Amino acid sequence: xxxxxxxxxxxxxxILGLVVTAGTHLPLVGEHLEEAPYVGWxxxxxxxxxxxxxxxxxxxxxxxxxxxxxxxxxxxxxxxVASRTIGLPLIGDxxxxxxxxxxxxxxxAEVVVAVVSAMTxxxxxxxxxxxxxxx
Length: 135
Hints:
The protein is mostly helical. It has one domain (17-122). It has five helices and no strands. The protein is elongated and about 45 Å long. The two termini are 16 Å apart.
């Protein structure tokens, strides 16, 4: 089934948010590959996914792309909160460290993408109006 382009007015915000997500994680890859290699690799994967999704929004702008963008950025926010609250293996020293300078723009960008994705997907749901027959 071919998905139709949504032509969402929020595409620009999501694309910028995804680029910021990648840009805030890439500088941290080296130190995390040494300290906790799995975190470094997750930062690489997140950055690559964010850039691919930004490009996909430029090209496709479909519900699937929006859903994946929202899920990826929401997962990043959850991982950040987990690392600062309960801690993650090999980076327990991050517990309580809410003041990491790149954390603010990263989380802000990820929250924006997750929220805009949810709003876009909710807006595209086709709810029949009075007198309209569902298809």
